[in-house]
């Protein structure tokens, strides 16, 4: 039942893991150490899929290098149901790349992306399908209430979406995560985008098409705890900004202009002191100015470095992720 990756190379060099053909609906779920929730997730998700697209759906569970029993649970589900596809990444690649992998493997005309932890209710699927029937290409869940999350998480998330809005020119919906239903043309466009630093919800906004919001209440995690500590949230924020905006590069000119202005003001002040008292004392202020200018220069260099580092990594052209194996229940 374990599938030799070589089998799928015949289908296309770009995507060796996708089985040929299409299904009506795919659900893509990145899973990282989600053993406590997998069973509950499947119990809630399967009936919803069966109702939305009877017999014609697949659930793609991407194991993002979990160190717990997640993969064993995924294969158990895949062995029981032909609708379940398990994809095992070679190591932990992070949420956005696990999601990207799922999008490349799935075969659905419509694709639902959802977190494993049941924070996003699968029961919204019929409503999303209805909006897609009415012509939407992307139906994204917009969180109006977030339960079971700390004040800190809510505040940082709110600040993040608002700062991002000011920095970038494309429409990235506020307070929307990756919980969304997309049509095949949108998924194909995403799959054709080669960048390694992926901020998927931003890329979906970039693609365009007809995007419709579906407000919902985000529940607390069913079990386990968040895998987005501050460090990962900051990394995601950096990826988001650098992938979609070059405005930070321009802060160098802004700082330069400000420092120049301050310099002239100070010169005026020094001259007036010199004219009235004849002497100027200024070691302390000079050191202060040198330090401030030095730190601004280093800061700007750091911003440049952030972009150059990303360019360097992108030019290496390594694969975005490595798949260890694909497990399909229907391959017995
Ligand atoms: N996730 C992943 N790889 C990671 C971290 C998270 O695949 O390195 C998955 C995780 O299993 C979940 C989703 O991404 O399905 C969102 O993660 P989480 O619930 O921890 O984030 P939060 O909802 O707290 O922002
Ligand atoms: Mg979560």
From TrEMBL:
Residues 26-188 form the Glycosyltransferase 2-like domain. InterPro entries: Glyco_trans_2-like, Glycosyltransferase_2, Nucleotide-diphossugar_trans. The chain crosses the membrane at residues 254-275, 287-308. GO terms for molecular function: glycosyltransferase activity. It is a multi-pass membrane protein. GO terms for cellular component: plasma membrane. The keyword Transferase applies. CDD domains: DPM1_like_bac. It is found in: Cell membrane. Keywords: Cell membrane, Glycosyltransferase, Membrane, Transferase, Transmembrane, Transmembrane helix. Belongs to the glycosyltransferase 2 family. GtrB subfamily. This is Glycosyltransferase family 2 protein. It comes from Novosphingobium olei.
